[in-house]
Model the fold of this input.
Amino acid sequence: MNPIYAAMPTTVFEAMSARARAAGAINLGQGFPDGNGPDAVRAAAARALDHRSNQYPPMAGIPELRQAVADFYRDTQQLDLDPGEVIVTSGATEALAAALLALIAPGDEVLMYQPLYDAYLPLVRRAGGVARLVRLTPPDWRIDPAALAAAAGPRTRLLLLNNPLNPSGSMLGTDALAAIARFCVERDVVAICDEVWEQVVFDGAVHVPLMALPGMRDRTVKIGSAGKMFALTGWKVGWMCAAPPIASVLAKAHQFLTFTTPPNLQYAVAEGLATQRDWISAQSAAFERSRDRLAGGLNAIGLATVPSAATYFLSVDLERSGIAIDDVAFCDWIIDHAGVAAIPISAFYSEDPVRHLVRFCFAKVDATLDEAVARLGRAVPALKATAG
Done:
């Protein structure tokens, strides 16, 4: 067996979700929202299933969706994309896999910020790449240009960037983006930008894609997710956007991964991008209210939260909360004693992890969030009495 996968444990998300199911716990660990997404998009998928082709669509995606993605980014992020620069994938993780397999030659170095999405490292290694990790720390998760430069080597070819960043819930400001763009241009580095959370941002913020910065148009792969935009995570519809010389290679990798994506879902996402922009904005506002509701509840019971600017996630700082056990032990304890599942932030580090933060998903209905807070409020005082 391939040693990369043979030695790999079950992901922490699957493990904690399985424990939550077995214990009957409220699952605020894995990042999926309650609800079924916009009615109009689901109805479009049903119509397409009955009235359009269910055979292989074009490998790169149906023309309608490629055009809709280009139009959406032109209108919302001022990117001038041609539909031929858009490749539809079966989810953003497949887009990441295709991009890394297409662009890494054996021995190439790939810069990544940690904490990081758990798929990044095995995908880089499977492609023959060498990971170079740059550590971010709370509470500000600040990008240090000097640390980025120090991590680069003579074979650094790629930068894999997640913005907004899961699990921290942070967003890169214009100064940080500009510094990263300068680095990529000066070092002749291609940026693979995992921007799946670009429409789930709060407090009046507007996502700025790295591709829009000077010098980055022709050296960026921009990855997006319809599942995140429309709160339909099970649909697994994503895309990659890149200039033609890069896009042509991405397509060759994609054709030997999933080859294509269910056509009815593609038609539905195309219609959604064209007609449901108000729904996307309203849903982001609803998630912001859920963030505030969960933060208020957790803070009220003595669990100190860390600011969240984006994503579905909010973290609790155990040190500031007066809890003297690490994040893994805390997550184990609250499943057994409070009936609530969360995710330890240390799981997102490959080395030298932060061990005092725990991530909760707030993309749930009010009653679920309130019950989770009530359960924690009843249980956590006992933990503080023994481990505070």
Notes: The chain has two domains: 3-30+279-381, 39-275.
